[in-house]
Every structure is written in structure tokens, then in C-alpha cells.
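Fig. S4 source data, part A: sequence.
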Amino acid sequence: MADNTDWIVDGFRFSTEKDAQLAMRERKRIEGLEAKLDYQNPKMLYAVYKKAVDNRVFVTPVGYDFLKKLQRCLKETPASDEALPEIPVSGVYSFRESTNPAVEKVKASRKKVRVKPGQPEFFSRRTSIYVNVALLVLVIVMFFMTVTGRNPNILNYEQAIQNKYSQWEQNLSQRERVIREKEKALLEEQDE
């Protein structure tokens, strides 16, 4: 692929090789015209200018620059009483307001989606409020179940574990007491 420095024609840097080649062809056409053109003859200047504008011969900045040069010369020495036609520009410059694609995406996402009249919205404001209230009620019910439930959870796990171990300790102490009583009863029977 060619380097961007190869895409410079008459001080204009083009973004594609194809545009640069088009500008070079226009430059050659301009050189041919200037060799034959008499800048002292306003009628000849007017005829060349009018034909170039009417036929849209030039479409690059190089050609526009030449047309602007002819237009200045004609304004200094008018060839006729007719008004000079304006130079038609075929490029669209308002297509992108910014050169940063990220800014363009953000701007596009900020644009409000317009709903056609008569077309139902996906969620109306009232429906949204009802759904939000229902979700709030569900959260409150879940919190209540968590606080009052028997299963250990993040709010009561420490107390649940302490209760479980204290219950085991009571069971073990009770069994130990029963075993000691039975041992004591057996020892008394043997001594008799």
C-alpha cells in the first residue's frame, strides 16, 4: 500500500490513493488549460469558467482552487453583465461533526428514540411504577424471611452456631451424668 505522503497533490493531502490520482488528473488538465489560457482576455476566462462550472469538470480541492482563481480574475475584470455562476461543491462536510468516532457513538446513543403516535410503548410510566413497587415489596418480604427464618444466614449465623454447640454440650453433659450414675450403681452392686 502506498504511503500517505504519496497522496499529496498541490498541498492537499488526500485520504485515499484514488482521490489523489483524480486530483493529479485534474492538475494535468489545469496545466493544459493554463498553457492555452490568456488571462488578459476576460471573455475567454468567462467561457472556460462557465463551461467548467456547468459541466462540473473539477471535483477535488485542486480543481476548486483553479476555479476560485478564475473567479477572482473575472471579478476584477468583468467579461459581461451576467452574474458569475457559483462553484458547485459535491462534497458533504456536515456528515460528521467530529473527527472522533467515540464521540459520534455517544452522541448517537443520546438521541431519544421517538415513538410514532398510536404505537404503544414497550413499558409505560405507570407500568414501570407498578413493577418497581412490586419488586420493592418482594425485597421487603425476603428481608423479613431472612430475619425471622430458622436457617442460618448472614444475619444470624454466629448465634445459630453458638446455639447448636451449646445444645451439643448439654446433650453430652446429660449423657455423661447418666453414664456416671450407671457406673456408680454398678460399683455399688459389686461391693455388696
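Fig. S4 source data, part B ends here. The mean pLDDT is 81.
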